[in-house]
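Record pair follows.
FIRST:
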Amino acid sequence: MHQRQLSISLYLNYFVHGIGLIILTQNMQALGQHWQTPLATVSYVISGIGIGRLFAYFILGNLSDRFGRKVFVNIGMASYLIFFLGMAVVTNIQVAYGLAILAGVANSALDSGTYTTFIEMGGRQGSANVLLKAFMSAGEFLLPLLVANLEAQQLWYGWSFMLAAVILLVNGVLLNRQHFPVRNQANASASALAVRQQISHGRRWLATIGLAGYGYTSMAIMILYTQWISLFATRTFHFSAILAHWLLSLYSIGSISGVLVIFWLLRRGVAETKLLVAMNVGSLVALLVICYSPIAGLSMIAALAFGFTAAGGVMQVALNLFIKLYPQVKGRVTGIYFTFGSIASFTIPLITGWLSQQNVALAMRFDLLIGVAGIGCVGLAAWAIRSPKSLSQERQRINHIDQQIVRLLNERFDTVTAIGELKQQQQLPVLDQQREQRVLHQVAAKSKQTAHTPYLQAIYQAIMRNSRAYQTDLHDLHKEEINHD
């Protein structure tokens, strides 16, 4: 119960974090008017978030291994609170840049304390960490709608900042009533898989380079899209402001859908490397459509697909894989991984700010190069981590299949119970030889391997024999109850 309440508070933080990720980009024009500066200057202020992350991630990641996770979650919440309240009213560009840096520190502190907490709570295959992305996407989905509504009604842009601050204040009270798990507690699945997969030292370094590089590209591809898609759509394809904001909301809907699908796939034991490669190829295809299709309907479908593939939790999947390479230093690995993401947060606004002075379309289409680099990074990591099948891996697969079989057999016995009751009402015998023969013929017809067929039939004969025994026991029990009455 305590873990559930703690999880809810941590997830709520990431709903606010999702708002924080795009609140400056969604208010670029309003902030530019308020500060009386061009959009390029606003973009440079946004780069301060990357500076904060760059300086904080590695330090806070290491410190969270030493001092515990709760301290750093609280530091993240307090830093974000100051950022939201201050940025709503600030007029000085230097102060605004400082607040942006503080937002980067807030991001770093939350990640250092939260991802490691979920792993230490025993989240299977890192699926709990993947769900963090769903709550981030929910914030990214709702904020553009709120901003568009404020613009349409000509209300103060600062209300979007105030909403996030209020949620943080309430959640701060709720979170500090909870107890965090013991830090650095071993995670069985991570330790077992940890790289006792006979990966050589050289290949592990290649995987580290690939995953660290993906920490950059996975963040960069999302930052660039969320920063420029609205302006790109209106200025390049002349879409309406509502449709341009809707492309970002569709991206968020796709992101949430992707998280749920990835969560389900991880639960089913799908390899992280396969997910990473497939999702990155899909995101590049969707991005090509977004960048070059002037058809509104096609752009909307592509935005949904891009959110699904690029922002559906693949960043978290790669982090989980990275932690499995070095399970004893979770905080440090988290810090390193997101340090590369923070470099993207700092450099991408600067690069695209310069590109936008030439052409907004050029800034947006720079994302295609990042997508290609991302495929290269995950391809390198997948190649380096690949390993021959092991006995433990195959047994784990068998265990998963057995879980499904037991669930289906429970359903079958429930149906057997209903059939037994109908047979009693109609005074029919328990054994129906013709029916059993038909079942065995169906098994033979559906068997994909001829060599397996006699063994499958023997298994089904045992199932039906035990089903008859179960029906007989139920019948005898029913007769005893009647006699007793």
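SECOND:
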Amino acid sequence: MEKKAFFQQLDERTDIRYTDSGLKIFRLKFPRANLRLCNVKIDFGSRDVRLQAESGDTQLPYGTAHFLEHLLFWHNGRNLYSDFFAHGALLNAFTTYTDTNFMFTSLPNRCRQTIPILLDALSNHSFDKQMITQEKAVITNEIQTAHLNHQLSYHYQLISMLSPASPAAVFPAGRIKDIEAMDIRDLQKAYKAAYKPQRMTLFLIGGSEDSETLLPPHLRLEKRPDHKADRKMIPACPPTLSQKEVLGDEERPEDTWTGLQIGALPGQNDLLTLKLYWDIASRILFQFGSPFFQEIQQTYRLEINRLSAEAHMYEDGGFLILHSQGAHSSAYIDVASYYVRQQKKQIAAWLQYGKNSLTDAIIYDSDYVRKCFEWAAECERFDCSFLDLYRTIHDMNVQDFMSLIDVLGSSKKAVIHVSQKEAIGQ
């Protein structure tokens, strides 16, 4: 099947409806799947630390969204995981920078029993001081354990070096001082503001049934409103006096962790477009198997044993986190940028590799409902179709790629060099 036709087929399998209360239903049919993946996404994540109201703003502790996620696993004195397990369903939950998610997989004939249980638990929570105290201890231990993960620690340390005031610099569970300061009144305020049907989306992925077959009969579905959401944009990076902050010994690194502050490009501030562009560029520049990396490694005899990149881009800013391992780890970004400029005739071929890699990944991911959900969630977040994703990827050109290369050289950087001794100790 032609790749474009595959994306069109995903759109044909997608149906978006709304309940009369405002709950959004995102149905993606997936005929080959035996199980049904259900996910309720709440538009409230770790970045949401300020509640706005006519009576005044409320500043919340970092980690509030994640704390609520923990509390909502308890409903009427019972643990939701146990209740779902009794129905043959596995329930999990996770909090991201932008949202909170409650996800379970289930046999299709169990959805009509499990979905109402989850929606009731999310919409009718009763706060209990004893349970809050219990979860404070659990989450404190979770934060302490996370600090033992050096990769996670470097990630947030880099963002803190680049933008200390950004909520992205804080682990989603918060800091221990935030957990200690967590107050039942703030939790109640946050819950009341966030856990509304209008801020929730229920994803139903798998099978070929209509939404009505999987949902409880009391949920009356209406067609999608005929309007387009506002386009999400990313701001330009703020001006800075210092372009680079370095920790560790630059002369003898074994691992190099590099953070770059990224934002809008000249003439391009569309968030989805830039997310996809950086994904493509990362596949070209920072994947071991890419033709670009093979060429540059052979040309310069680079000792690079590991290479990876992650772009984190949101309406309040963006960061690119790079990890390179090996004797030449600290030089890779500069060498790669130089090589691109010296070999401009090859950019079109490299770019085609990056585009193919991303589109193939989406096609491959569609065979797995969990991965397919992630792309469906992107479409829902940006109010776009799967075909829109394909077109944006397809339309990236050489000039767009060179703009990203310019960012690698000009953006504010934070670097952590890890010595061989420290790397072995980890």
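COMMENT: The CA atoms of residues 233 and 270 lie 5 Å apart.
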